[in-house]
Amino acid sequence: MTTKQAVTKGRGTRKKIIMEGNFPEVRPLEGNEIEAGTITVKNFIEKQKEFLLTKKLEGLSECTLRDYVNHFQYLNNWILYEYCEETDIENRFVDKGLFMAYIGYMILQFKPATVNIRLRTMKCYLRYLFVEGIIKEDISAKLKLVKVPKDTIQPLSAGEVKKILKILDLANYAEYRDFCMMLVMLETGVRVNEACNLMVSDINKKIRLLTVRSETAKTREERHLPISLKTMRYLERLINIAETNSELYLFNSSYGGRMETLSVIKNFEKYGKKAGVRHRCTPHIFRHTMAVNSVKAGMDIFTLQKLLVHNNITTTRQYIQLDTDDLISSHSKANVINKFI
After folding, report:
1. DSSP state of 220
2. What is the pTM (predicted TM-score) of this model?
3. What confidence tier does 279 reach under pLDDT thresholds 50, 70, 90?
């Protein structure tokens, strides 16, 4: 029977379509048959390793690389368990819609700041794929960061800091170590990972200077931070303890070896709860507290920007949360109207 033949029995019968003749074999698309400039979800995940290697060769810090790995893991898990099945990743292609769906998912799960941190990694990777010619469209340019409420991170008050410092048992090594770390953060604004990587040799006791080495700095640039005489006296004891125990690092665990970032964060939160501080107590909050109190004490924002190692002054601005009383006090000191009447 051919396509021209039809079953004529019965009213309203329809023609039956059949296939005859010689046709080329139809097979699933293979990698070399995919249109240039497109990429499957599977290849998108596989090429993340190349991207990470490239960034490592560019000199990104180990901390940043670990963040990239974690952010990719979050994204990949979502793709495999929420967006499409694992058996489908070879036939689905990467497009803007995938990332818009992921952003929508994150908005429902996390705070805007967390969404943007993960989104920046995603944009950086997509830009890399575009520049390398792996994808033909710069999807990264079409993905916008979500709006973050301004001035949401509140620093610790002087009273709250004193409460936290007071509950620490300075006869206990672990708490004395954390006490010293808090002092260093309050005075220099050093990041927690940078503090954990400080070595005894990074402290110049004579001129009271702390050095953040380039290989441990987030910005990969070495910087020198001044330390007050009061803080240095506490650090001298900590240095002696480290040297007595043949430790290379300044802040060590109770069993030896440098402190891990996550352990420090957990300890700070524990102290905050113990002291009865209502909002979160983290190393990052101590960094904000340093910024606010430095400005209150008269430090100009450009010096603060250099200490905090911010490329953009806008970032520094976000660290300075002045309450109404601070604004009233600063306004009274300025007393600009006296210049005119």
Report:
1. S
2. 0.59
3. confident
Report the distance separating Cα 177 and Cα 257, nearest Å: 13
Residue among 199, 223, 226 nearest 212 (CA): 223
| Contact by Cβ (8 Å): 102, 110 | no
What domains are there in the chain, each with its CATH number? Answer: 35-142 (1.10.150.130), 158-327 (1.10.443.10)
Handedness of CA 64, 69, 71, 72 (dihedral sign): positive
Q: 219-226: long-range contacts at Cβ-Cβ below 8 A with a sequence spacing of 24 or more?
A: 219/309, 219/311, 220/59, 220/60, 220/61, 221/309, 223/309, 225/187, 225/188, 225/190, 225/307, 226/188
Length of the chain: 341
- What are residue 249's DSSP bridge partners? 199
Give, in order, the Cα–Cα distances in Å from 11 to each of 4, 6, 8, 16, 52. Answer: 18, 12, 8, 15, 68
Give the pLDDT band of residue 339 (cuts 50, 70, 90). very low
d(CA 182, CA 189): 10
pLDDT grade for 81, boundaries at 50, 70 and 90: confident
